[in-house]
Each structure stands twice: as C-alpha cells, then as structure tokens.
Specification:
By secondary structure, the protein is an alpha+beta fold. The protein has one domain. The chain has five helices and seven strands. The strands form two sheets. The chain has a five-stranded antiparallel β-sheet with strand order 5-4-3-2-6. The protein is globular, with a radius of gyration of 16 Å.
C-alpha cells in the first residue's frame, strides 16, 4: 500500500482529536478495569480492537511516523495487547474488507467491555 494511502487510512481509524486525547502508554496500568476505552475498530464483527492508550513513534525530525497502541483485542478470545496503527490500517478480513472505526463509540471503562479480565480468584470460586 502506498504510504500516502496508508496515512489516509490511519487518519480515518484514529483521527488527530482521538490521538491527542489518548493517554501515554503505561499511564493507565494502575487503573486496571477503570481505564477508559477511547476508540473501537472492527472488521466483519470477527475481530475488534478497543484502544486504551498509545504513543507516537517519531523519526529523527520529531515527526510521528506511527503509533504504538495498547488495548483489548477480541478475536477468538479476549486479551490485552500492543498493536501498531499502521498494522490496523493495512489489516483485511478474510473477505478482504478493511478495518473501520466505530464512529458512534462512546468511551467507557474497560471492565464494562471485558469484566471477566478483572474478576478475582475469590469471585470466581464464589460462582
């Protein structure tokens, strides 16, 4: 994919106003389930990325060339993981569809989306 086209896709997935409001990587760890999910991207409803925080990777001139993001990935299971914005921009579903950002998404705590990630062992044994 040409770099200019990829940049345009990245802007659609994570526009500047969202990027500017993303907490810096590592700053939300102490919040655990209270961390706010600021963006949601999905394709075919098969794979979904919920973005919590991110930081720019910069070139020698100080320009942002990519963003390392952190959040919840829902695929065949749910896990917290790191991913690059450039990888999301080039991702295609098995049907060839690109990833899209949910424009109607309202930020919410991570524990509302994946409460099972934050249950304690004590809570699990009580069930």
């Amino acid at each position: 994919m040409k770099r200019c086209c990829q940049k345009a896709r990245e802007l659609k997935l994570l526009p500047y106003p969202v990027r500017e409001n993303l907490p810096i990587l590592g700053t939300q760890q102490h919040l655990r389930g209270k961390a706010r999910v600021l963006a949601k991207c999905t394709v075919d409803g098969l794979v979904t990325w919920y973005i919590i925080e991110g930081s720019a990777r910069r070139n020698t001139d100080g320009d942002a060339v990519d963003y390392l993001l952190y959040g919840l990935v829902e695929d065949q299971g749910r896990k917290l993981d790191y991913f690059w914005l450039s990888d999301l921009a080039t991702f295609r579903s098995p049907k060839g569809l690109p990833l899209v950002r949910d424009r109607h998404w309202k930020p919410k705590p991570l524990e509302e989306i994946a409460p099972e990630l934050f249950r304690t062992q004590k809570e699990d044994t009580m069930r």
